[in-house]
Amino acid sequence: MRFLIFGGAGYLGSHLVDLLDFTENEIVVFDNRSGNISTSFSSNVKFVFGDITNPASVKELDQFGKFDGVFHLAALKSVEQSFLRKDAYALVNETGTVNIAKYCKDKGIRNIVFSSSAAVYGALDSPTLISEDDLTKPINPYGLNKLNAENVLRELSTSSSINVMTLRLFNLVGAAKPEYNDLRGENVLPVIARKLMGGELFKVFGNSYPTTDGTCVRDYINVLDVAMAHVMAMNFLIHNKFTGSSHTLNVCSGTGFSILELITLVNKVNKNHLSWVFGNERLGDPASVIGDNSRAKETLGWIPKIKMETSITESLSLGGTFE
Does an H or E element contain 46, and which? Predict the structure, then answer.
């Protein structure tokens, strides 16, 4: 099989490339290296430096001919930064997706797996786990970007013979290799890692949310489990030989951890304990987001396997810094 991975040099992309590279696949990675991940590829992987916001840059992929499937992972992903850089986020996450959709349509590519986000659900507080059928009402520009990108690809599947699998990812944690850690990321564990490295206080944003301990609750899922879901999603599209189909699945653990519970686990697995202080709530942060992964299990046969303690250990294992 021949696969093209937009964003394949990033945090998730690096893990996905490794999984695909274990088999007899031809892989092309298209990335602008903005993810700050120390990725090096095997000789089986061709790398193209490019930007999805530039159609001429994407057109450089014409040299590789046709692909059996495309993975679209390329995105800007900080909720906080999406408020400060709305135009940049819309350009990459929405216009970039339009450019990828046009490329796939022009090249007759049949299968696309898209990395979306649980941010599309917004501040949905449900007494049950959040399912794919629940209301999508983003409360931050990043979530809106992702929802608009989903709609672009859904319309593409309707108007063409292209099959689209949208995976709504919850909070990615862990790293199969220390060099794949997203050290500059703004997700909670990279921030905690940096605070531990510097011996600084970690700020917990808010303690008056309607949760058991007043802090935000999130569904964390290991990045390698997420990468495997992408592989299985592409196999599902290819082997079922759909024509113009669209599917949406949550990729999550189905279990929530509050920030204080997360800190307790960090201090359990790490010799250098994290010191923390409460701060003000952040704009655009919902109280609780826990996903229902039953549809992904049923559709793909996918099961998340890596425990939270392992994910935390991986996230804090930065070349022995915390040993």
Answer: strand 45-49
Residues 6 or more apart from 177 whose CB is under 8 A from it?
14
Told to judge if 89 belongs to the known catalytic residues of this protein, a careful annotator would answer no
Q: How far apart are CA 317 and CA 323, in angstroms?
A: 7
Largest CA distance in the chain: 55
Token pair 């949208």 is found at 166
Digitized pLDDT (tens) for each residue of the chain, 323 residues in all: 999 999 999 999 999 999 998 777 899 999 999 887 878 888 889 999 999 999 999 999 999 999 999 999 999 998 889 999 999 999 999 999 999 999 999 999 999 999 999 999 988 766 679 999 999 999 999 999 999 999 999 999 999 999 999 999 999 999 999 889 887 778 889 899 989 988 899 999 999 999 999 999 999 999 999 999 999 999 999 999 889 999 999 999 999 999 999 999 999 988 888 999 999 998 767 788 899 999 999 999 999 999 999 999 999 875 333 33
Q: Considering 89, 103, 121, 142, which one is annotated as catalytic?
A: 142
| Calpha distance 146→168 (Å, rounded) | 9
DSSP H helical ranges for the chain: 11-21, 55-59, 79-84, 86-90, 96-107, 141-159, 188-198, 223-240, 259-269, 294-300, 308-316
Amino acid at 117: S
- The contacts of residue 7 (CB under 8 Å, 6+ apart) are 13, 30, 31, 35, 71, 72, 73, 74, 75, 115
CA distance readout (Å), 134 to 121, 167, 199? 8, 15, 41
Question: Domains of the chain, with CATH numbers?
Answer: 2-173+221-251 (3.40.50.720), 178-218+254-316 (3.90.25.10)
Q: What is the DSSP string of 98-113?
A: HHHHHHHHHHT--EEE
